[in-house]
Amino acid sequence: MTSPVRPFDGIEEERYELFEMNTSRFELSRREFLSILGPGLLILTYGSTALAQRFGRGDRGDDSVSARLHIGQDGTITVMTGKVEVGQGSRAELTQAAAEELKVDPSHIRLIMGDTALTPDDGGTYGSQSTPRTVPAIRRGAAAARDILIDAASRMWGIDSERIQVVEGVLKDSSGEKSIRYAELVDRPEVVENLQSSVPSGVEVKPVSEWEVMGTSLPRPNGKDIVMGNHRYPSDIVRPNMGYGKVLRPPAYDATLKSIDSSEAEKMEGVTVIRDGDFVGCVAPNSFRAAKAVEALAKTAEWEIPDHPSSKNLYSYLKDRAREGGGRRSRGGENGSVEEGLASAAKTIEAEFEIAYIQHAPLEPRAAVAEWEGDRVTVWTGSQVPTRVHHELCDAFDLEPDQARVIIPDTGGGFGGKHTGEAAVESARLARAAGKPVSLRWTREEEFTWAYFRPAGLIEVHAAVDDAGKVVAWDFANYNSGGSAIDTPYRVASRRTRFLSTDSPLRQGSYRALASTANTFAREVAMDELAELAGVDPVAFRWNHLEDGRLKNVLESVVGKFNWDRRRHERKPNRGMGMACGTEKGSFVAACAEVTVEHDKIHVERICQAFECGAIQNPLNLRMQVEGCIVMGLGGALFEAMEFANGRIKNASFGSYRVPRMSDVPELDIHLLDRKDLPSVGAGETPIIAVAPAIANAVYDAVGKRCRSLPLKLT
Amino acid sequence: MENTFTIQVNGRNESITTDPERPLLDVLREDLGLTGTKFGCGEGQCSACSVLVDGKRVRSCVTPIGKLAGKKILTIEGLSNGDSLHPIQEAFLSLSAFQCGYCTPGMIMRTVELLENKPNPTDEEILNWMESNLCRCCGYPKILEAIQSAAKATAKGDSQ
User: Fold this and answer.
1) Which residues of chain B neighbour A85 with C-beta distances below 8 Å?
2) Which of A128, A492, A592, A667 is the most exposed place for a label (fewest CB within 10 A)?
3) Are residues B133 and B71 in the same domain?
4) 566-625 of A, contacting B, C-beta below 8 A
């Protein structure tokens, strides 16, 4: 291992293609499973899911496990999923999915999440994929299990399966004479014969109209552990004889270690120093001493520090190094002639938007506990992608897949920022050298400096309206920040949309909603400018450029709820109203903001937002995700920006990097459109995208100043 | 450089032999196995590590153990009575006032101190009091609701 930080370019849209899935899978034998889960029936369902095909595993055919359930003789139903809980509510929603189809109370479902030895490979927990892909997979698996059990009962009783109903986990024949619980049934040999059933293609999941558990506000199943402080997050895991690790970080990006003297650190009681190339770390009896030992190491370390750009000239740096398309999948394209459109129109805008690097700053920093038993390692860590961490471990230590196990306890925040396994690999390296389990937790400064960032970007918009108030030319170029939601949803006579790769001075990757925040910001501010040029109300202007459909529906909803027409015309000094809308990952959002601007400070008074993501699976969780997105979005809109120079982050602490606080929360008026006729899609990301442009447009309405940067700047 | 200190944690006397500079947070988590109190920043900026020392909230990540000899410390683990929740825990649970839940112990401990000092806080007082407690999921609306609800429940309980 030469470096603790592996090259990683994790922009999510591209990750779906570049992501190296773990190609060799390993599975415990049935006997091993049952030794962990207790006696009962293990049901594996197979099927070439769309997700599997997308990752290029379609050739495995029936070999990919799409759902894995265990029905215990004690009545507990265990559902195993590779998805993880980082606060977005997947534990509740996946529990609901299983309970719905098995027709049991959710309290009887135990969900095992993100354990590479037990759970199927459901892909990473990102990209709002759990709702559209994993929920259906679990539902089909649970429905298949239910059908297998009904089938077994029908043969046992010698009656048609049509005559058997399931009520609260009890199979009953229609005459009411016979009944048997799932738990009793799984003890029978004729049931066990059906273990390896494929999901029959005809398996029926319950239609939305018959939902009993889905569609309700099931709270987080392990909520009591959370409020009692009993839930063990990755950083809380304790193993016998465990030491505490710490890694020596370079003083600047890309620095190389020239020399180091570890003798002082090694003199400290109980301290082991590990050096492997540029990787230097230690293990100590407690984390305080580990930090002292690393301080001693740092004093003796000499580094070669190369030049590194500063955030002050970031945007010219990005633009100077841009190249069309590049290695990533570039979205967009061209329709009509933008040049002709721009030349013909009387009114044009030419605007540049600057998007800062920001950090996810989950409250639980990266953390891992690694434990070796011979040449096998188990790692507990916080990550959104257990299979990736597993792959990184196998790669770093030259392990066969069955030599590494990754377990993801419900984790303290992700937001797209925990796709990687740095802490896992580091703790495993330290643990192997120290010969004991090692707990490693990054400091806040490490998290701000060495975790990957949301990409910065430069966006150029050149657009024109004709005398009839129609957009006749739309030229949109995004440098570096990404391709999500880069295509305008508006009807425009000609358009050119480009994504340009460049050299990112900071390590960058996914962030909640990816570049759709940046692209929606630039587009919606530009649309406001065009509306003004055309002399049309911003809502009417958008309305005129939209086809009928779901985006128009949320727009109509928010405008009505906010009372746009009245408020927009009610003039008060320094007070303004703005709006924005957009779509990403199959869901639709529109927001109105009311702000006041005083002494060059923006106060967001009110946000009204309408959001639609198909049939609502859990209204409580959905509302919390929408609230969280809006308030988190205030951070990126108003305060958050990484400052760096000479290879160092200058604001690597919560004291110098402002995040939203309780008092920042504006009045929130949220409207969730429940489209029971449409498939459910994810909702943990898109509700963030309209916040910043709605505020920027409101600021313009208040004081006549166009803000074209994230965070917004008035001076 | 190790010293021995006696502190009372959740009603139990604990004798700790350690470096007096070590933060209380580390002693709770690493020596006493009380991992309910969380590390968020190590700089006293996020309040995830909030515990009560003689009834007053301290940020345990920046409080050296050497200053706490003889003090009474209350952590999230000491708040409930067995399996029966404290009214503030009950309010956070029944209103689902958490997403990832990592800030929750600190939020709850800070609320305990708030309601001891101001049993009927106004919204403005709550916001001021909670200003230093960060929730990165930004689940503040639900947290505020839970605090308001806990205040009502506590006030009602007191008057009975």
Assistant:
1) 100
2) A667
3) no
4) 620, 624-625
Question: Helices (DSSP H) in A268-332: which residue ranges?
Answer: 287-300, 314-320
- The distance between the two most distant Cα atoms of chain A, rounded to a whole number of Å, is 83
Q: How many domains does chain B have?
A: 2
Contact at 8 Å (CB) between A81 and A112? yes
Question: Do residues A517 and A696 lie in contact, with contact meaning Cβ atoms separated by under 8 Å?
Answer: no
Percent of residues, chain A, with pLDDT higher than 70? 89
Give the mean pLDDT of A581-607: 97
Per-residue b or e along B84-110, where b marks 16 or more CB atoms closer than 10 Å to that residue's CB: ebbbbbbbbbbbbbbbbbbbbbbbbbb
Q: How far is B159 from chain A (nearest CA, A)?
A: 25
Instruction: Evaluate whether A362 touches A414 at the Cβ level (below 8 Å).
Output: yes
Structural domains in chain A, CATH included, are: 38-228 (3.30.365.10), 234-305+383-443 (3.30.365), 321-358+453-710 (3.30.365.10)
Task: Report the mean per-residue pLDDT for chain A.
Answer: 90
Q: How far apart are the first and last CA of chain A?
A: 47
| Phi, psi for residue A645 in degrees, rounded to 5 | -160, 145
ipTM value for the complex: 0.98
Among A5-9, A573-577, B88-92, B129-133, name the one with the lowest average pLDDT: A5-9
Closest-CA distance of chain A to residue B100, Å: 3
Question: Of B78, B112, B143, which residue is a domain's last?
Answer: B78
Q: Which residues of A touch B135 (CB under 8 A)?
A: 363, 662
Phi/psi at A358 (5° precision)? -135, 165
Give the Cα separation of B97 and B102 in Å (integer). 11
pLDDT band at residue A303 under the 50/70/90 scheme: very high
Domain limit, last residue, from B51, B78, B105: B78
Q: Are A691 and A660 in contact (CB under 8 A)?
A: no
